[in-house]
Amino acid sequence: xxxxxxxxxxxxxxxxxxxxxxxxxxxxxxxxxxxxxxxxxxxxxxxxxxxxxxxxxxxxxxxxxxxxxxxxxxxxxxxxxxxxxxxxxxxxxxxxxxxxxxxxxxxxxxxxxxxxxxxxxxxxxxxxxxxxxxxxxxxxxxxxxxxxxxxxxxxxxxxxxxxxxxxxxxxxxxxxxxxxxxxxxxxxxxxxxxxxxxxxxxxxxxxxxxxxxxxxxxxxxxxxxxxxxxxxxxxxxxxxxxxxxxxxxxxxxxxxxxxxxxxxxxxxxxxxxxxxxxxxxxxxxxxxxxxxxxxxxxxxxxxxxxxxxxxxxxxxxxxxxxxxxxxxxxxxxxxxxxxxxxxxxxxxxxxxxxxxxxxxxxxxxxxxxxxxxxxxxxxxxxxxxxxxxxxxxxxxxxxxxxxxxxxxxxxxxxxxxxxxxxxxxxxxxxxxxxxxxxxxxxxxxx
Length: 446
Description:
- By secondary structure, the chain is α+β, with helices and mostly antiparallel strands.
- It has a domain at 137-356: Transferase(Phosphotransferase), domain 1.
- It contains eleven helices and 13 strands.
- It has helices spanning 79-90, 93-102, 138-144, 151-170, 230-233, 240-256, 268-280, 282-289, 297-307, 317-330, 372-377; strands at 28-30, 36-45, 50-56, 68-74, 113-121, 124-132, 134-137, 173-174, 183-186, 193-195, 202-203, 392-393, 396-397.
- It is globular, with a radius of gyration of 21 Å.
- Residues 1-15 and 344-446 have low confidence and may be disordered.
- Its main location: cytoplasm.
């Protein structure tokens, strides 16, 4: 289907949303349960809101060691409202703790929801949400280690994400946008990782009733183009197998540096078709990513297992865990709860050479990360200009600034991203980006 014509000078998608006004340190916000929170210095700016250090209201100043962050955006914006639906239903602290206790888990990488509400100032209304504070994101770590993670780390991350996905799936949601830039390390424990950004989260089974498979050409390619599922490429609402397919792509990229379709992300139909070919022949897909002696059998088995799932099937999470645990055993190690990010190119099962490093459009994000300097001294973060975005036009799209890796581009790297505990403003193929007139909808829109 050809893209619709654009008016001259237009075509960048929905009208710009207003940015939140910056509040002074010490501003007190009261949530819906009448609990008061005090703001500290702003430490991040997203496309539509600001992120502040925060603590429970007291006479003390909010310092650089504050354990909470508060995302604030104008109340008539949609992104934070959408995420709130997920957090209020599935991320309350007692709900997460109950799951951890019943499953004998040390921790679960789902951010806790501590409160939300509306705040009025200067005749304007703002929506806010209180969340745990986090540290750096895994995309930054991925770039620092030469765009390859050690095999042990990749399998450990896979195990952590299976825990997270099983939890959110059992609470009627799918995430739909798993990637390194949406995985944050704990602020206090570098061995704990959390999946954030539920702006694309979808309630696939409201009140336990599964959604039916239905292709919609107007929704094709939602998500982050290099990782999004085949279902999303076809305009189908995400399901549990979609999350696991995305996880498979992530693990392969983390281990080999580059997915087979990454040179043509500006052509979503090409990306979709290559993914279909890879699903039809997983062994051939793995051969494109790894040399024969370095091919990780456990990732092939993982993807073969996911391939067997139908749209409404419940995944066999424990079987998938066993596959990854067997992979750890095959390299003479086990899951020791320690995440080591040191580069291990020679033993990683390397695919493309390190000279193929490049910056993906999806990596230039304003995400939920904290600037290292802000974390040390609590000083206000410098405001960054959001990358320009191009619109999605139904079946065809242009990936912003995406370039094929060449010697000139090998030095390109994403700038440091900032923490934002609300909706991420990733340029490119996110839900509703580039489709004029369509407003943000609640996460659980049915």
